[in-house]
Amino acid sequence: MFSRAYRAAVTIPPVVWVALFLLTPYALMFAYSFWSVSPAQAVVHDWNLNNYRELTVKGVYSQTLFRSMWIAARVTFLALLLGYPLAYYLSFRAGRRKDLLYQLVIIPLWVSYLVRAYAWKTILGSDGVLNTLLQFLHLTQHPLESLLYSPFAVVLTLTHIYTPFAFLPIYASLEHIPRHLVEASHDLGASPFHTFWRVIFPLSMPGVLAGATFAFVLSLGDFLAPLLLGGPSGIMISNIVVSLFGAAYNWPLGAAISLGMLLLVVGLLFMSERLEKRWSFS
Amino acid sequence: MTTTIQPAIKPASDQAPATALLTIRTVAKSFGKSAVLRDISIQVAEGEFLTILGESGSGKTTLLRIIAGFERADIGELWMGNERLDHLPPYRRPVNTVFQHYALFPHLSVAENVGYGLRVGKVAASEITARVDQALAMVKMSSFAGAKPAKISGGQQQRVALARALVNRPRLLLLDEPLSALDANLRRQMQVELKSLQREVGISFVFVTHDQEEAMVMSDRIALLRSGELEQVASPRDIYSRPATSYTAQFIGHTNLLRCEVKNGIASCHSLSWPVGAGDGPALFSLRPEKIRIAGSSSRAGETVIRFQGVIRNRAFHGATELLQVEWADGLVFSARIPASTNLQGNLALEFDAADAIPVRESREQR
To answer: How many A-B residue pairs are in contact by the CB < 8 A criterion?
Structure first.
């Protein structure tokens, strides 16, 4: 077997890495969330629950959290609505074009997030592509101001960005469905429509769940899209965290929100993993 | 048994069953440039157990998939009675399949799997329950009704797959090497069960296998497929005792092939010669090892008996019989299956009846 020195050499670096760059920041954040800020804006190390109390008392935080979850839910729904048919088409119908189309779905992931967000800005802006087109077609007289800087713009952009993340696990689960099951269903008299709803869809549920989890969790924690395209009405919870750690200089409150988010997301991941296990039959 | 050379048998067409359930007419299929099936014509009778036998790559599974509707034939027609089948999608064909790896739906219980075809066929719920129970009882799987397929063994999955197909009362059941994943003992047991089940339900079976013994045990007729062409279609007894071609003779059981020259009604191979009813020219004869016996051990009146001397080169003991390799002429070796005995010398006098040397057509070169 391997020598002690070898085992130490391969195990210690990752452990140190995780301890230094993952566990320590979390521990610090955990500690910060129980501290407070003095009027002179210095962090005071007196342990208390004031930050958590403030989160529950002040409506703005829970409102923003609910808005964020609502946006994330809409993004998830739209990403599944777009991602599932796409994955189904690629897996079952694309034939020889499958590999090419798969690459076409993946390539946008290589483009910078910022570029894609700014692209929507130029499309949705008051002098943007969409408004110009609408006026050119005489569908509107004046530019629609509500397109950009709204929850709508955030949902649109996040859907664009996270649909591939919903698509990938769905595609993987569809690819794993043995094709003779589809043939068996046809053989037993089920039309393609019935076969889809009785065999393919149930067997792809683990992928749908994984895709939904990706889309929801990633868009829930997103702060760039609301920052660039959200405007005041499209602010999400991460923007508040950013401003608390930045301009507002209230690290303890920011840490408390972050920790709450972390617990929420971990809870979600745990639930989705449980469900995925129940729905997988391999 | 006669010694006349059979006319070249055109497979299937000249032995049309009395009541044909399924008629396959001049079906051909290619994948890309390679032809998988060529000019396949065959009929399946009502209540018949037909086996499509062939080596891997012979096109037997493709033929089954064409009948089921998973593949389209390039040319040719499929008829079931007056209904043309080859234009129908698989889910409209009155045919069910037992797949090689069973293809049970993993997310459904055994009972739900069996009831699947009835449910999509809009059968009343009460009738579904009754028929599923009955089908599970038929394959002795009632106590597993609630189990998921992953929880039961391969042999049990096989039974469920069978029940799932038969519960729909198809007119024709297709079976794609359904026993190949089972171990030898279970396999023999299932062969018997499957055959008696088929007789019981009276449904026509088209059974695909590469195992000639399995084909012999179960079938009413065997269709031997070779490189996408039908080599011979006949009952197990006929195909064994009267193989039409050298390939058939060698694939079904063991045989000795004798390359002879026929002249003036006499076939001669080296030192051996006997009268035949064939025309002049080269001829090929198949002689089964068990048709060779020790000289003088039995004799039938009125038979032309061919005697020869040989040297035993190899003996393989098989229990009741043993298989001898006997060299009878410079380098020519006969396989002879004789009752097991101990007092065999190196030099042996053997004989066979001339009628047991069956004239066969030379099989075409493998394309």
So the answer is: 70
